[in-house]
Write a structure and sequence with these properties.
This protein is an all-beta fold. The protein has strands at about 5, 10, 20-25, 35-40, 45-50, 60, 70-75, 80-85, 90-100, 115, 120-125. The chain has no helices and 11 strands.
Length: about 130
């Protein structure tokens, strides 16, 4: 079963930074919309950020805008999420997915539009 692999999570204090990576050995990310979502304990998985296949168009949840940056490195088949000024409410398991419809963008914030979810990477922000 094809699956993406998330990595880079950890425990940091409020105000800290982390860089998450999303990659796969058998799933091409280049030219496809890729999204990051997160799930806090007891809550539903929510949209965090997405990058269009053109690597120009990007979208962010209001709660992370200005603090998180999504980037892609097509040469390495990696999509990263740079997280700065982390807050306790950023705590959760972070997942990446590839859009089902190539570079589709109309529903880039919608969970069910993505596939190839990995196991996720835990991010804990606590003092």
């Amino acid at each position: 079963q094809k699956q993406l692999v998330e990595s880079g999570g950890g425990s940091v204090q409020p105000g800290g930074s982390l860089r998450l990576s999303c990659t796969a050995a058998d799933v091409t990310l280049s030219l496809w919309t890729v999204g990051w979502f997160r799930q806090a304990p007891g809550k539903e998985r929510e949209f965090v950020a997405a990058v269009h296949g053109n690597d120009v168009t990007k979208a962010y949840a209001e709660s992370v805008k200005g603090r998180f940056t999504i980037r892609r490195d097509n040469g390495r088949n990696v999509v990263s999420l740079q997280m700065e000024s982390l807050k306790t409410e950023d705590t959760g398991v972070y997942y990446c997915g590839r859009h089902k419809y190539g570079s589709g963008w109309d529903n880039a914030r919608v969970l069910n539009e993505y596939e190839y979810w990995g196991q996720g990477t835990q991010v804990t922000v606590s003092s």
